Amino acid sequence: MAMEDAVCLADSLAGTGTLEAGLTRYRDRRVLRTTRLQLMSRAMGDHVYHPAGPHAALRNAIMTAKSQDQWLDALEWLYGGNGLD
User: Is 83's pLDDT higher than 80?
Assistant: First the structure.
């Protein structure tokens, strides 16, 4: 995320006339992606790394139901960006 942020910040500042406008553009471009990442991280912690008992059994069933390619497709949004999307 830090590299994406740097690329987006540089591009946002270069594309505007003032620092304030550049920072506003940067915020507007990054807020949805970073919010999604925070929510997904919290869900991963709650449902992948820390469950026990029936919750762990459900996690295991969900994790094994998808192939490796399906998991890669599901996470493409995270690893396929360049910071400017």
Answer: no
Torsions phi, psi for 84 (to 5 deg): -110, -5
> What does the pLDDT read at residue 28?
95
| Burial bucket for residue 25 (CB in 10 Å: 0-12, 13-18, 19+) | middle
Q: What's the number of CA atoms in the CB half-sphere (13 Å) around residue 1?
A: 11
State the Cα–Cα distance between residues 29 and 17, nearest whole angstrom. Answer: 17
- H-run or E-run covering 70: helix 68-74
In angstroms and rounded to an integer, the radius of gyration of the C-alpha atoms of the chain is 18
pLDDT the model gives residue 84: 76
d(CA 47, CA 59): 7
Q: Residue 63 in contact with residue 55, Cβ under 8 Å?
A: no
Here the tokens at position 50 are 């820390």
